[in-house]
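Q: My collaborator sent me two sequences in one message, no labels, and asked for predicted structures for both. Can we handle them in order? The first one she listed is below.
A: Yes, handling them in the order given. First sequence, followed by its structure tokens:
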Amino acid sequence: MTRLQALDPNEATGRSKELFEGIQGKLGMVPNMMRTMGNSSAVLEGYLNLSDALGKGTLGGRLGELIALAVAESNACNYCLSAHSFIGEKLVSIDTDTLHMAREGRNKDPKIAAALTFAKTLVEKRGRVSADDVETVKNAGYTDGAVGEIVAHVALNIFTNYFNNTANTAIDFPVVEAETV
């Protein structure tokens, strides 16, 4: 059972209503996570702004989705695993094997694998990575800016993982469950 109420977009008011209208126009729906975030327009707007900014970054949508899966598996967030598996497969055209490997921090491409390993390391070490951890991802071909974007993607996904695990958000995508606890 959910612990935080998801707002009905048709009954929302003020800034949350405006944000819901924008989401509806872009996605054709307002996912439960965003409906629940809408209880605080500041929370929803902050999430949308960082997500939008990262979408314009150098890493691209494909790597962003793979990082989201690696982080969601680390934090056992079934809502985010479900959402990003669906988005990755249906909207970004990532095959299911690649999606599953990302959850473990693996990829056939060594450069992508390095980013996913770094993302998992950030979560495991709670951001207190070593100089060697940073050098390893940089040696795989990531600039200082790209490393910063990986950190930002991890932070955004930790936020959504914690939010959904706290809210116990009702999953409105095909359900995918964490293998780790």
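Q: And the one she listed second?
A: Here it is, processed independently of the first:
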Amino acid sequence: MRGSQQLSYVPAVNRRDFLQRAACGFGSIALQAMLADIATAAKAPLAPRATHFAARAKRVIFLFMAGGPSQHDLFVPKPRLVRDHGRRVGLTDLPSGAPVGTDKFLTLGPMAPILPRGESGATISTLLPHLAKVADDLCFLHGMQVDNPAHDLATLQFNTGVFNEVRPAMGAWASYGLGSENENLPGFVSIHADADVRAYGSAFLPAAHQGTVIGQIPTDPRESAIRFLSDPETTKDAQRRRIDFVQAANRELLDRIGEDRVMEGVIDSFELAFRMQTATPQLVDLSTEAAETLALYGVGTDATDKNGRACLLARRLCEAGVRFVQVTIGGWDHHGDIRGALPNSCLGADQPVAALIIDLKRRGLLDDTLVVWSGEFGRTPWSQDITGTAPLEKHGREHQPESFTTFLAGGGVRRGFSHGETDEFGYKTTSGRVHIHDLHATILHLLGLDHERLTYRHAGRDYRLTDVYGTVIRQIIA
């Protein structure tokens, strides 16, 4: 195995010293080729790289439902919750492992009917009518699990694999392992990113692999979706001369001090930003899309415009060669009045997400694009009366990291398939448990990357997205 696939697990220590020592001490053609690729990667961190094995997916779109959608209201019908709705949990056989104090809460049935859909029979709520129409393209994981019940920490673990350290986001790992298919665009883009930069950062990986943030997607194509990207008061030739001057000074400093990831990141970002000035404006100009496509995503409709634009832009970015696009769709933290709030959350996300899957499929992109839909955790089968006095119809649900639902589509996963089950209460996983490390390992596997070999040496040890854990979920691979 030769070439750039070695880049994914040869540590990036001081490259200059490493290359010189290795070149002097070894003479094999294969090793020389490997070292040449390492040197190339140091100069062009976003250059396309070979995979460890044949990939099923070329790119990933991660649709992050921030706040924790309720699987009990959207995907997992439990007759017991319907039967015991409104009864104290302690009076209906407390589920094994439930936290102390759970017995005083009330069982909550689903907010709307959850029905079998399509030929696969996948169960989806009537609150998600558009997703119901693409049920046979979806692959459900009903036994998902993370390790922390707090929003920030669970979000951090879902994105980086850990909740107690600063580690690279999975988009940064994908960019590091594969590079970008378009030299004028970053390898990782985060749309409507959360305020916590750790969720899309590159940590100790080269800074070129951190997520490029797109906040609000402008309706006016003359406006930039990326802050500080354009300089309308300076000609392109003048900008180029300025950049060349600054870059020369930066490289001279880097030559003197050796490796400096911050300086390397600055050099790379200057060059990428200059190239992006040409590619990005046309890419984020959604007015070039057909009226039918805009309507499909719900662009122009109040409830769906924001998320519709984000999902449509995600498709355009992937089509243009970006490896990993994350779209954050918030509003799922329903501690109170879930009956009143959940329909609005579904209304804003249902049509754009389903449209993305339909659009990718009709353009021939779904087969090699992996779509991942998930929150940081799910919600409990019992209520949470945050005031202590609210009537039952105003109750919400607490966080549940022990089991929740994620779904995938395209990119080599089985269509119309459901993996994993929970107990009759919908609390503990009884089969098909998938820890977040397992999901990360599977995403990398579908991209053609071995999660145990995609490593980076930092602080004296080799790090990877899955740390020392993770098993590929073979059952869901087509």
